[in-house]
Amino acid sequence: MFKKFIAVFASSVIAAGIFCVFPACSDGDGGKPEDPPKANYTLKDEIATISWEEVDGCEGYMVQKSPSRFGTYEDIDYVEGKTQYVTDDIYAYYRIAAYGKDGNMTRLLGPYSFDLETFGNSTYVFAPTDNMQLVQESLNEFYLLTDGTVEDGRARGEFTNQRYSALFKKGEYDIDLKVGYYTSISGLGASPDDATISKMTVSAPISLCNFWRTAENISFGSNTVWAVSQATSLRRVHIKGDLALSADKATSGGFLADVKVDGTVNSGSQQQWLSRNSQFGSWNGGVWNMAFVGVDGKIPADRWGGGAKYTNIETSGNLREKPFITFDEENGYRVFVPDAATAAKGVSDWSNKNGEYIPLSDFYVARSDRDTAETINTALNKGKHILFSAGVYELNAPINVTKPDTIVMGLGLATLRPSDKNNETLIKTADADGIKISGLLLDAGKNTESLLEVGEEGAQASHAQNPISLNDVFFRVGGAEEKATSVDVCAVINSNDVIGDNFWIWRADHWDGVGWDKNVAKNGIIINGDNATFYGLFVEHFLEYQTIWNGNGGTTYFYQSELPYDVPSQSGWMSHGGTVNGYSSYKVSDNVTSHKAYALGVYSYLRDAEVRLENAIECPRADGVAFKHIITVFLNGNDKSGINHVINGEGDAVEKGKMLGGLEFYPAAE
Asked: Which residues contact 572 (CB under 8 A, 6 or more apart)?
């Protein structure tokens, strides 16, 4: 009789939405981002065991179950004499209601779930069965945590340690989604059209600094605003309306790939932009450097000079789209890995025929609250792939990726930082086929040689049939903390046939720990391997060359670079043994015989002293070396600073009074 009374009472409490009737209760609405519950949840052979500490004065426990985190919890079992529940429904969410002898609920524990135990508390998995009001509230709450107000947005958002990943199962979501700093939005369907959000907006409360956010494998059911700058990605997305790439403040981006826009893409104030392998109803606008590679639709023709600013390349070169996570009831969580491709145009095959699914059980899912370089390397040595859940990871040693076809991917812009004990790098790979790294922010520490090394020095193997691919990989030196940071070079690419797809390599130009002698980094990226292909290479503010290309057969589709703001003097910024003013942004080494680059922009804001850069770009004069569409821009700075030439002594200067320069071809077309 008592057991029946408890069940009836619990059901009425849940139906009324009254989850906590005593001060000891917690997380009655399914768990809030600022106070996530701790779960003792274990999984073995597809059986989940939930266990909890005994609650004082408790007569028994009612187990409640919901298909999703913010769904309706129903009573499923009353437990007496033990503090454990075992189930084979591993993807449901559970709570435990504790009741005293008087029939009153004294505590509500949970939720407990596979999702929370696997991905941690910074990853939210949403489902159409959720209460949409609670989904909206949780998303709004995190947006406020990461963006703050317009006045303090940089301090609270741009350099926060908060990381957030929102995963949406197949279905429709009537929500108004705002995406803040360090936030990733992903659909879990096989196709972007499997999960649809009614509205998404990324505004630009701070000019030119809307960094660190991504959206992928999802659709948006109305006109969409994606007013972003660098270190962002809109990828494998269907927009059922128009897409605006700017809003209330100036924007400086950006990158999208594998995107279908039914209506018009309005670029607005975007200074530069790369669109790759996509389909647009039409494109409108452009400022300095707008590039299209393998894009279908009514887009601008290939035109440069005389006010035109468009580079239109019919198909992409060597390419591999980014892996992404999926979920369905039959197969659970899996990661889809697209095949490599070449000469592609338009969006990829969203039916996922060209690639393979890998079950999540083949991955080690790292969490920042429990994992170290040692635990992650142990998993790699056992043949596991690595999925970094949203968080900030401090690593005492490099992550060593040695086996072919290993996948290392991040959710929620998972961030890796070296501890003071780590003077080497963050990720080091062998010269092995098919390694894939994606979705990570690599942050400099006290003093390391690099942040990413792909292949050993002197690597010789060909990976043409199974290339190494690096998608949405971002690098930062300084800005986040007051302490000094130092790295010799952020990224070193030694292997051949590497594909880079959306890199932002940034020596911070503002906020904490920023200055010529504070965040010290000579070079952004050095490419030693042959036949490397980069789509969207953004490199900014390094003390010497931003980019050094030593390998043959390289191709760059779209380049954006700002010179360092804080050069202290001309005498302290001289290249070629002290004989040439400044260090060019894009340096192709003298021994290179073949190299191609399209749509390059180099910008001058030499702020702190009277300094000049002789050439924005340097390259050998060789038959196989060619550049198409270069622009130089004088943004601001010292009145007598600027860039003397575009490339190899050719092209007019940019300086105060002459903002824009550039060349259509180098060498000049016959």
From this structure: none
Q: Which of 158, 540, 562, 618 is catalytic?
A: 562
* Strand 296-298, strand 319-320: pairing: unpaired
**Cβ–Cβ under 8 Å, residues 160 and 181:** yes
- DSSP H helical ranges for 154-199: none
Q: Which of 87, 68, 74, 73 is nearest to 126 (CA)?
A: 68
Assess contact for 161 and 193: CB atoms under 8 A: no
> What is the structure's pLDDT at 206?
78
**Distance in angstroms between the alpha carbons of the first and the last residue of the chain:** 95
CB 470 within 8 A of CB 504: no
Strand ranges (E), 230-318? 232-239, 243-244, 255-266, 272-276, 279-284, 289-293, 296-298, 303-305, 308-313
| Angle, vertex CA 647, rays to CA 644 and CA 649, nearest 5 | 60
Alpha-helical runs (H) found in 233-386: 373-381
Listed by start position, the domains of the chain span 2-117, 123-315, 362-666
Contact of 515 with 507, CB cutoff 8 Å: no
d(CA 13, CA 550): 69
Two structure tokens written together for 115: 């999702």
User: Rounded to an integer, what is the distance from CA 56 to the centroid of its chain?
Assistant: 45
Does the annotation count 329 as an active-site position?
no
Is residue 150 pLDDT above 60, yes or no?
no
Query: Per CATH, the architecture of 2-117 is what?
Result: Sandwich (2.60)
Is residue 263 classed exposed, middle or buried when 0-12, 13-18 and 19+ CB atoms within 10 A define those classes? middle
Distance CA 492, CA 482 (A): 26
pLDDT tens for 321-350 read: 999 999 999 999 999 999 999 999 999 999
* pLDDT, tens digit, 9 for 90 and up, residues 497-537: 999 999 999 999 999 999 999 999 999 999 999 999 999 99
Compute the distance between CA of residue 441 and CA of residue 506 in angstroms, rounded to an integer. 11
Helix (H, G, I), strand (E, B) or coil at 47: strand
What is the DSSP pairing of strand 392-395 with strand 407-418? parallel
For β-strands 654-655 and 255-266, DSSP reports them as unpaired
CA distances from 533 to 230, 423, 469, 577, 611 (A): 19, 29, 10, 30, 33
pLDDT at position 154: 52
Contact 619, 595 (CB under 8 A): yes
Helix H or strand E segment including 603: strand 594-604
- Find out whether 214 and 255 touch, Cβ atoms under 8 Å: no
The CATH superfamily label for domain 362-666 reads Single-stranded right-handed beta-helix, Pectin lyase-like (2.160.20.10)
Is residue 486 within a helix (H) or strand (E), and if so which, with residue range? Answer: strand 485-493
Taking CA atoms, 500 is separated from 224, 282, 421, 612, in Å, by: 27, 27, 29, 31
What is the C-alpha to C-alpha distance for residues 288 and 631, in angstroms, rounded to an integer? 7
Handedness of CA 609, 615, 616, 617 (dihedral sign): negative
Strands 660-666 and 580-581: unpaired
**DSSP conformational letter for 538:** E
Q: Can the peptide bond before residue 111 be classed as cis, meaning omega within 30 degrees of 0?
A: yes
Rounded to an integer, what distance in angstroms lies between the CA atom of residue 167 and that of residue 127? 9
